[in-house]
């Protein structure tokens, strides 16, 4: 099944949780171990990528995950080195609030032929960096959206919708102290029909509850699996509110 269809199928019933694994943080075998525990805990898919990915580490990690798991493996590229032929799909992202055209259309043009050659399913994503933004904000030359400027985030999301994108990713930055403000998520929800992905600084079950209530469709967590002593328990705890949400209500 295509990943987009897989998402749609889940979203017709409830919200989605994805686990982000940075291939630079551990050996591929360890990444597989972590992913297996996250899946047992109830995550719906594995994202692989980071702001500074090495292509060889990425390829080996994606390959071992793909061969051993039966949830989608989705690339989350930090640059053109973030593409692997073993993945099921790629978040094909444009960092709309970058100040450098390389991150808006340049890397995309350089990476597109490879994505097409491998036949990787591309999910078009407007990537928006919200304050504080962290490493990705620095690397991506972003002008991070101030946390109280909800309308700015909504305006970017509306532009993304009109440009034909299907997802908007509201990113507070990996390891952020606070996740994206709920009022900003609600404003984006009210302004577009895009699927809303929210990531950065989501650490607790309460965070997930708030973010979903505000209108997020897909929740991404990364840092918590690096810190948890019991990964399966931590993931099952935070996905619990998702499993009881309904889009049919
Ligand atoms: C990073 O949004 C993701 O792009 C995940 O952030 O590491 O804070 O969970 P965390």
Describe this structure in words.
The structure is a single chain. The chain is α/β, with parallel strands linked by helices. The chain has one domain: FMN-linked oxidoreductases (TIM Barrel). The chain has helices at residues 3-11, 28-41, 55-68, 101-118, 134-139, 150-162, 182-191, 205-214, 223-227, 231-243, and strands spanning 16-21, 45-48, 73-75, 89-95, 121-129, 167-171, 195-199, 218-221. Strands 1-2-3-4-5-6-7-8 form an eight-stranded parallel beta barrel, surrounded by eight helices. Helix 2 (28-41) packs across helix 3, helix 6 packs parallel to helix 7 and helix 8 (205-214) packs parallel to helix 10 (231-243). SN-glycerol-1-phosphate binds at residues 20, 171, 174-176, 199-202, 220-223.
Tags for this entry?
8-stranded parallel beta barrel; 10 helices; 249 residues; alpha/beta; single chain; 8 strands; TIM Barrel; phospholipid biosynthesis; binds SN-glycerol-1-phosphate
